[in-house]
Amino acid sequence: MIVLKLGGSVITDKDRPETLDGDSLEQAADAVANALEGEPEDLVIVHGGGSFGHHNASEHGVSTIAGTHDAAAVLEIHGAMKTLNQFVLSRLLDRDVQAVPVHPFSTAHRDDSGDLELPTGQIETMLGEGFVPVLHGDVIPHTGVGATIVSGDELVAELAHDLEADRIGLCSTVPGVLDADEAVIERISAYEDVAAVLGASEATDVTGGMAAKVQALLALEAEASIFGLEGLASFLGGESPGTTIE
Ligand code: IP8
């Protein structure tokens, strides 16, 4: 069973609010459809927000820890993410991938320690019936603070753990985790191996995000790969493009 994350910045144009990167989304959908034509494996897809959801969240001051009790704000953020989810689903359906939505707002929550709770019975049933569940970063109810953001990366880690995924793939805008010379690091087995290079560039959002991604993936049993869009077909074909995190 594979958990695949399609990065928000891969499938949207991050510089223009609520704009798809149509070509990249089509390319990703082609790779998924081709992979499922051969020997179909159980696949769960999670996508991020990119130019959808993030600006609505920041306008309302909502983050993974700062919540809101304003239902209108919740609906706005959730609505933006549902719009993007619909685009992803329709590109997959166009290619006969039996993709169906799972909206974290309606299934997941955070407890009073901020820990993510994501029931998986619904997703397991979908997989058993031959569907490809497609989740997304979202706003979710959070005990004591109203509603907060759950990122696609958190969903990937939770799903991979709970569903005992065999492989995890993060399709990103970079071809892997990059070293100081911008070369792809092939394998990471301990955070200490890359702390200097990831820590050094922590000031920017993107690399701060990469440090968090690597740490979360190292904590999981299954092997994970971080790769660019050009690596997606080979990942789904069973190879390990980009950086392997073991
Ligand atoms: O792009 C965030 O998901 P991410 C979703 O995976 C939002 O961080 C902002 C609603």
UniProtKB/TrEMBL annotation:
Do you know which SUPFAM superfamilies this protein is assigned to?
Carbamate kinase-like (SSF53633)
Query: One Pfam family, short name please?
Result: AA_kinase
Q: Which UniProt keywords apply?
A: ATP-binding, Isoprene biosynthesis, Kinase, Nucleotide-binding, Transferase
Looking at the UniProt record, the site noted as Transition state stabilizer sits at 14
**Reaction(s) catalysed (UniProt annotation):** isopentenyl phosphate + ATP = isopentenyl diphosphate + ADP
Under the GO molecular function aspect, what terms does this record hold?
ATP binding; isopentenyl phosphate kinase activity; kinase activity
InterPro entries annotated for this entry? AceGlu_kinase-like_sf, Asp/Glu/Uridylate_kinase, Fosfomycin_R_FomA-type
Residues reported to bind ATP: 5-9, 209, 213
Identify the residues that the record assigns to the Aspartate/glutamate/uridylate kinase domain, covering every copy: 1-220
Reading the lineage from the top rank, the first entry is: Archaea
Per the record's keyword annotation, is ATP-binding included, yes or no?
yes
Q: What is its EC number?
A: 2.7.4.26
A single GO BP: terpenoid biosynthetic process
Query: Gene Ontology cellular component?
Result: cytosol
Q: Where does substrate bind?
A: 49-50, 54, 152
The answer to keyword Aminoacyl-tRNA synthetase applying to this record is: no
Q: How does it assemble?
A: Homodimer.
Q: Which family does this protein fall into?
A: Belongs to the isopentenyl phosphate kinase family.
Role noted for this protein: Catalyzes the phosphorylation of isopentenyl phosphate (IP) to isopentenyl diphosphate (IPP). Functions in an alternate mevalonate (MVA) pathway leading to IPP, a key precursor for the biosynthesis of isoprenoid compounds such as archaeal membrane lipids.
The identity of this protein, by name, is: Isopentenyl phosphate kinase
Q: Which organism is it from?
A: Natronorubrum thiooxidans
Lineage of the organism: Archaea, Methanobacteriati, Methanobacteriota, Stenosarchaea group, Halobacteria
